[in-house]
Amino acid sequence: FFTMSANGATAVLVGIPQEPVPIDVSYLQKKGITLKTVFRYVNEYPKSLAQVASGKIDVKPLISKVFPFDKAVAAYEFAAAGHNDVVKVVIDL
Residue 41's pLDDT is what? Predict the structure, then answer.
């Protein structure tokens, strides 16, 4: 998971795993990754949707590449390739 994070990124772990999770702290320090944890986001989903719908939160900058539906296989291949600068790949229906 952390190998996909950019240098200086903030990673948020949501929920509590059932088993202990080993974390390479020295890797996080080398990349300058901030690690935050939260038990859960109670009632946050509807608030977040409302903020996106109202334009208070602009998610368009998170979209790295858009593929037409007939190129869906190429979209999945592109997303799976692990480009460091890709956040979100969208398939346009």
Answer: 67
